[in-house]
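[Discussion] Sanity-checking designs against the backbone

I'm trying to build intuition for which residues belong where. Below is a structure token string of 302 positions. I'd appreciate it if someone posts a full sequence so I can compare it with mine line by line.
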């Protein structure tokens, strides 16, 4: 493999096309996932659109004619309308990694692009059925919180926050993930969905606050990675910069021992993440910059 194979995309590519049919399918998958993890009702007030019948009554002036029930109207000889129990209300918190390590990618797009797409899709799913979406961006000196909002306002606020991009190189903050999870635990008082979108390269102390969130919420860990993070090709001497700290490291990739050691350390790191999430009983989805991430997300959530 040539050194050119290590070059990331020239700039952020964005998450790519997100077909509505796939988003709709993911809506069903996420709803099932949450209903399994959060037993009990979280219904919106009153009656409205939904799948469960709340009431069948004679038509009154001002009722939506689209809710007319043909069978009941024919049987009684008088127009009747169907009123439904509204769908469950749910607040979705997206805990998004914007640390410098997310600005890496050697395949179709950067890790930050995939993370942005996941956040947008989860936001679109969240505001359906009278839900709301909030965002916590972490990776720098301080987490930034976008309060939960519903409908179009929630999606607009989400897009504006995502437009800020990632933290500049060298300004990453160790322990930022643990701090962000702790913050969500303090402000998310009602049970909901917490989706953590990160490369999980910040290994400092996140297990405890994530486990605490799991006691109250449905928690989903979405890990975003890149193929070049798993192994280093033999391309000679490389000068590598740790994006989190800005520290420069020189590596001779022509040495087989160096490449094998790098791959072994990376496998150990990922195995540790999987073991920890399994111990906490947190659903884990691994996405890659060389995948069709939206299809992979829906497939792995089933």
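Best answer:
Here's mine. Compare freely.
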């Amino acid at each position: 493999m040539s050194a050119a194979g290590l070059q990331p995309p020239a700039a952020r590519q964005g998450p790519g096309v997100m077909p509505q049919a796939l988003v709709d399918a993911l809506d069903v998958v996420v709803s099932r996932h949450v209903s399994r993890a959060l037993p009990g009702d979280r219904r919106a007030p009153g009656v409205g659109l939904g799948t469960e019948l709340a009431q069948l009554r004679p038509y009154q002036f001002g009722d939506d004619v689209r809710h007319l029930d043909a069978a009941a109207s024919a049987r009684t000889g008088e127009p009747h309308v169907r009123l439904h129990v509204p769908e469950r209300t749910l607040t979705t918190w997206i805990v998004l990694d914007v640390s410098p390590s997310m600005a890496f990618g050697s395949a179709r797009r950067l890790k930050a692009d995939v993370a942005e797409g996941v956040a947008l899709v989860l936001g679109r799913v969240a505001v359906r059925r009278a839900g709301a979406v909030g965002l916590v961006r972490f990776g720098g000196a301080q987490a930034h919180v976008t309060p939960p909002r519903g409908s179009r306002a929630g999606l607009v606020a989400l897009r504006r926050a995502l437009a800020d991009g990632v933290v500049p190189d060298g300004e990453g903050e160790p322990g930022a993930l643990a701090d962000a999870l702790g913050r969500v635990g303090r402000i998310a008082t009602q049970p909901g969905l917490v989706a953590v979108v990160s490369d999980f390269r910040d290994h400092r102390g996140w297990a405890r606050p994530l486990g605490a969130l799991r006691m109250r919420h449905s928690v989903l860990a979405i890990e975003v990675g890149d193929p070049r993070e798993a192994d280093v090709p033999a391309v000679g001497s490389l000068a590598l910069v740790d994006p989190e700290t800005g520290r420069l490291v020189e590596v001779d990739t022509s040495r087989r021992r160096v490449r094998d050691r790098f791959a072994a350390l990376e496998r150990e790191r990922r195995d540790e993440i999987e073991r920890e999430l399994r111990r906490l009983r947190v659903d884990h989805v691994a996405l890659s910059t060389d995948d069709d991430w939206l299809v992979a997300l829906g497939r792995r959530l089933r």
